[in-house]
Specification:
Helix 1 runs antiparallel to helix 2, helix 2 packs across helix 3 and helix 7 crosses helix 8. The relative contact order is 0.09. The chain is α/β, with parallel strands linked by helices.
């Protein structure tokens, strides 16, 4: 696909299916593909008056809104790069990402602008942009698959977030791989409740214009609304994380699943066996998956046919994707490495991470796993220390670095504790120099620097942290303390 060009996805879909609904939302607002194209082009010309053009980095700080969808497509018409920011991050975290991405404009909502109070010179709300005049420019009709389209940040085990650059080709390959796995029906409607600033949510939005498929957009996840939407709005495909699945199972009770539902696509961690049994009893077509920001969403998927035969497996690589296990131990466990056109080009302004993450064209995920005799993947540990809480990835080192900034803290180690609601929550083991250092004091310091979901739910004050002969913290020993 090197330097291949193709018609702009939205323009092409507006030509093929002008009157088909592209976006529905909970406010009963609908946009056809033709209307979406027209509004996106208009928005693009208004943004252009702010000096935004090819390769400009434009950050979008927003919840799931139709305006956000329009803004992302508008940036594609300017050949600009959409930098998608997590609304749950603190001001300090957002400031770092804006600097690292070399953003020139922030598009946001009135509420988030007032809430975050970012130190950034050029910030515009959707409403601010709507009243601008339109620039007299010619918008492109073609896209180059090698061009960058989006950027989003993923935390690394070193604690510093890394910006992942996605090309049009990455998103195209991801969409095609998903379709070849799940199939495509003319009446498909995908429920988009995952945040668009996460790759799982963004990928649904882009599949919409590639497939010519309706997306039902929920601004914010609500378990009652989620259930009602699935049951009443002719939803055929649902992307969700384990927490959403648990809540849906509780609500559905003995009510049969509507015939129009054909797929629940699950990401964000493995599913406990009791949950899988409930899924089978209720005959819910569940597809488990494995993927990450760097692979533009799912890259491995387990179909419902193998849910019990291959219990605990993530499945097999999607079409166009390849997977290997490197440096296997005696049990066949090693690092999961992947290759394919959906894998990112690299991290922005981070050559060191790029050099360490790729080898001979293979991306080293940092996750450990093994393949069984039928080549089904089993993930043993997601980046070893990764905590997955309600579908959000939390890296202990990021929290540890902030806590170490508190006066009187000598050492700290953060691990995940099992939680019935969120799957896992972070907890901290702290070594302090004096007893005057309290959890309240630490909380006051870190809450302005970290998103709320990263704040440790409990702090254990200990005399020392268990270390091995190499002076590395033995986190499994800390996990043993939680069970005592």
């Amino acid at each position: 696909m090197l330097n291949e060009t193709m018609p702009h996805w939205l323009t092409k879909q507006a030509e093929l299916s002008p009157h088909k609904i592209a976006i529905e939302n909970t406010d009963d607002r609908t946009l056809s593909f033709l209307q979406l194209e027209q509004e996106s082009k208009t928005f693009a010309k208004k943004i252009a008056t702010l000096g935004i053009g090819e390769n400009a980095k434009v950050a979008i700080l927003s919840t799931n809104r139709t305006d956000m969808v329009i803004a992302i497509h508008a940036l594609s018409y300017l050949k600009a790069v959409a930098v998608l920011l997590n609304t749950r991050l603190s001001k300090q975290e957002l400031q770092y990402q804006l600097k690292q991405s070399e953003t020139t404009l922030v598009i946001t909502t009135e509420r988030l602008r007032n809430d975050k109070k970012l130190d950034f010179p050029l910030q515009k709300t959707y409403s601010d942009i709507q009243v601008l005049n339109e620039a007299e420019i010619k918008l492109p009709t073609q896209i180059n698959v090698q061009d960058p389209f989006t950027m989003m940040f993923t935390s690394g085990t070193t604690g510093n977030p890394k910006g992942v650059i996605h090309t049009y080709g990455n998103h195209w390959a991801s969409a095609i791989g998903s379709m070849l796995n799940l199939g495509l029906n003319k009446d498909d409607k995908w429920l988009l409740t995952l945040p668009i600033f996460h790759v799982g949510g963004l990928s649904i939005l882009l599949r919409s214009v590639i497939y010519g498929m309706t997306v039902f957009l929920m601004e914010k996840y609500d378990s009652n609304q989620f259930y009602e939407t699935i049951m009443e709005k002719k939803i055929t495909i649902i992307s969700l994380v384990t927490l959403m699945l648990k809540q849906f199972l509780k609500k559905v009770g003995k009510t049969p699943l509507p015939n129009h539902v054909r797929c629940f696509l699950l990401g964000g961690g493995s599913v406990p066996e009791p949950i899988l049994k409930q899924v089978a009893e209720k005959q819910i077509p569940l597809f488990q998956s494995y993927g990450m920001t760097e692979t533009s969403s799912q890259i491995v998927t387990l179909s419902a046919d193998y849910a019990f035969e291959k219990l605990g497996s993530a499945g097999k690589p999607l079409f166009q994707a390849a997977l290997k296990i490197w440096n296997q131990n005696e049990e066949g466990i090693g690092e999961i490495v992947v290759k394919g056109p959906m894998v990112m080009k690299g991290y922005v302004n981070n050559e060191q991470a790029n050099e360490s993450s790729f080898e001979d064209g293979w991306f080293k995920t940092g996750d450990l796993g093994y393949l069984d005799e039928d080549n089904f993947l089993y993930v043993v540990d997601r980046r070893t220390d990764l905590i997955i809480s309600g579908g959000e990835n939390i890296y202990p080192s990021e929290i540890e670095n902030v806590i170490l900034g508190v006066e009187g803290i000598v050492e700290v180690a953060v691990i995940g504790r099992k939680d019935e609601t969120w799957g896992q929550v972070p907890v901290a083991f702290v070594v302090r120099s004096c007893s005057d250092v309290s959890q309240q004091m630490i909380d006051e310091h870190i809450k302005i620097k970290l998103a709320s979901f990263k704040l440790p739910k409990k702090m254990y004050f200990v005399q020392s942290l268990p270390r091995n002969a190499s002076n590395k913290i033995m986190r499994h020993k800390l996990k043993d303390l939680l069970e005592e």
